[in-house]
Amino acid sequence: MNGMISAMTAMLGIVPYFVAALAVFLVGKYLFDLSTPRIADDSELTAKDNPAFGVLWGGYMLGLALAVAATFSSLGPSVWDNVRDLGTSGLAAILLMRLSMLLGEKLLLRGLRLDSQITAERNMGAAFAFAGLMVANGLVIAGVMRGRSDTYLMELLDIVVYWAAGQAFLALAWLFFRLVSRFDARADLGEGKNAAAGVSVCGFFVAAGIVLEAALAGAGSDIGAELLIALAIGLSGLVLLAAARALTALVLLPGANLADEVSRQGNVAAGIVSAVGSVATALIFAALVRSQLG
């Protein structure tokens, strides 16, 4: 009985934080609407029943949820201080998520314009790729938010530096994926509107985000040393992801060429197998990293 009372008291204690998190989500939705004027969000979701936008929107909101949830990792005894820190960190997460989407459109997935590919073309391949990138960025920001900083100003500097490092590593991971996947992902995602390729890319981006979250979590203000540690973890994770992709093709798709199935034949089942193999490998790798490094 005492245990139940303690649990209910604890649940009541999270109400202010839950309300604050919902407020952050509303601000996140408003900023998304405001910063994508050529995309009528509500219309795409309801009047037009656009599944491509639904996938993109789901990826963005899931990424934002991961980023916001990470701000609860360092709650103190003062409810007011915790809510204030949540508001500050939540706003930072929203801004970084939107900036990450812009960088993804301009640099990583260059040539895939959101307003045309998602709304006009209803391109599911591009939608899955962008959704995976948004989840990956949410995981990167989550890792950044779990860092340790000596002062408030250092915390702001650390957030910017480690987020920028995460973006650079995602770009490196994308180049690496294009090499090991052996198919032209940009052509498949754009001109080909290949949903199978989009699912495969989505899974890889999410896997890269899981690796980066484990690499960045707990990083402190000794930026040089922490970045070297994160780089070592990240590169190790990429090598394992490549090995897992080859093993997935060998074990789950014997006698078939994974790249051919995904790229030329548009086999969504093969794309799902590829995506799940990447994510499963990243989850196991991240768990091992945490067990060794704490």
List the helices and strands and how they pair.
Blueprint: H1 2-13, H2 15-35, H3 41-45, H4 51-70, H5 79-108, H6 114-120, H7 124-145, H8 152-181, H9 185-189, H10 195-216, H11 223-252, H12 258-263, H13 268-293
Helix pairs in contact: 2-4, 2-5, 4-5, 4-7, 5-7, 5-8, 7-8, 7-10, 8-10, 8-11, 10-11, 10-13, 11-13
Offer a quick outline of the entry.
This protein is mostly helical.
Describe the protein's architecture and organization:
- The structure is a single chain.
- Helix 2 packs parallel to helix 5.
- The chain has 13 helices and no strands.
- It has one domain (2-293).
- The protein is 80% helix and 0% strand.
- The protein is mainly alpha-helical.
Q: Unreliable stretches, pLDDT < 50, 5 or more residues?
A: none
Helix fraction? Answer: over 70%
Query: Whole-number average pLDDT?
Result: 83
Please describe the biggest sheet, giving its number of strands, its sense, and whether it closes into a barrel: none
Query: How many DSSP-defined strands?
Result: 0
What class do helices, strands and sheet pairing give? mainly alpha
What gross morphology would you assign?
globular
Distance between the termini: 34 Å
Number of helices: 13
The total domain count is: 1
Proportion of strand residues: under 5%
The SSE string, one letter per element, is HHHHHHHHHHHHH
Radius of gyration: 20 Å
What descriptive keywords fit this protein?
single chain, 294 residues, mainly alpha, 80% helix, 0% strand, globular
